[in-house]
Amino acid sequence: MDFPFVREAVKNLFSRSSCDMYPLKPSEAAEQYRGRIEYDPSKCINCHFCERVCAGGAISVVEVPVEEGTQITRTFDLSTCTFCNTCADFCNTHAIKLTKDYHMIGLKEGDLLVSGTFVKVAKKKPAPPPAEAKPEEKAAPAIKPRDDGKPVQDPSKCVYCGICAKKCLGEALTVDRKEKLWKLDEDKCVSCGTCEEVCPKKAIIM
Amino acid sequence: MFKNLITESTAKSPWLFHINSGSCNGCDIELVAVLTPRYDAERFGFKLAGSPRHADIVVVSGPLTQQSLPRTLRAISQVPEPRCIVTIGSCPQSGNVFKGSYSVMAPLSKYVHVDVAVAGCTPKPEAIMDGLVQATEILKEKRKAWLEAKKNGLKDGPKAETEQEVPAAEDVPASGEEVQQ
To answer: CB distance from A20 to chain B under 8 Å?
Structure first.
């Protein structure tokens, strides 16, 4: 007489369970998993690039004028987020990071919001970029980077393509190809470094 | 005595009813993954029910398209009280990248009270499991309140502030633009 599956049944009786026993045994997400957003307001320079590239419109900013300058609160709505990592990719100062934390459960309103607040000091020297700016001095001795971290153009390298002006978020740059004009509006510039990064001729120094 | 037995055993077997309201299938396969032997949600008594009338927990995925919204609400209203509504992924909470489309009616919380929202696009099976376990806790409390209300003679159960009537499918406005105004 033939008993089907007897071997399987006996084997499975003594084999280990294939269950991960998840809530009892904590499990870690895979390497480079994109979970809960972490935002470091101390690194942020308020260049608004993250909002511009966010497909779902999950990032919102509230700007309140205070005594020292502007108080900026940036909020990431995880219930709108697609976790595509584009905001973190585009962040020049690495203020946004997608962590491996996947425990994102909202029981009430506001549970799924990540926000950070900082005060941007007006008119004074913006803090973050100068540390990076110094080593570049050797590369271009003729044109020195500015002390305040704002971009400088190298006329010998510049081809006036206008990419920097197109990419500038604050519309601080004016480039005219015919007139060979490259102008910076210092009040609008937030020294985000985007123009330096996109310049195909490396004609912008910060 | 029988009543106690029934309440105790129902607490240990919260059945799920899954509604796909125009989802991309990402969240749906993750919910199915939760029921596979690897994650084995049946340890907690979770089981997919075939009919909304048999379910305790409603799991909604998808951005609630105009076509699916009346059907979703009808299915939710058929789930007997006390029930718990769980949304999976970003879509039912906000519309995700489809937000602002003429045919997307999200969020679900505009129409019914959502108890647990699991974020992610898509959430990991572990996160869904966390959400469902959280939902059973809420369900236990709801059931307790429900039983007490029945003792006090209220047939339709307690009317907590968070409880909302599910709008009838016919009452739901036909286009997304009307809702936004």
So the answer is: yes
What is the layout of strands, in order, in the sheet containing A59-65? A59-65, A69-77, A113-121
* CB within 8 Å: A29 and B124: yes
pTM greater than the 0.90 cutoff: no
Give, in degrees to the nearest 5, the angle at Cα B165 between B151 and B23: 125
Q: Please indicate whether the domains covering A31-121 and A130-205 agree at the CATH topology level.
A: yes
Instruction: Render each residue's pLDDT in chain A as its tens digit; 206 residues.
Output: 778 888 888 998 999 888 888 888 888 888 889 999 999 999 888 888 888 888 888 999 998 988 888 899 999 999 899 999 999 988 888 899 999 988 889 888 888 888 889 888 876 554 555 555 444 444 445 677 888 888 888 888 888 878 888 888 778 888 887 888 888 888 888 888 888 888 877 888 88
Output the CATH code of domain A31-121: 3.30.70.3270
Asked if B39's CB is within 8 angstroms of A107's CB, the reply is no
Whether A13 and chain B come into contact, CB under 8 Å, resolves to: no
CATH architecture of B2-180: 3-Layer(aba) Sandwich (3.40)
Do A180 and A160 form a contact (C-beta atoms < 8 A)?
Answer: yes
Q: Which fold has domain A130-205?
A: Alpha-Beta Plaits (3.30.70)
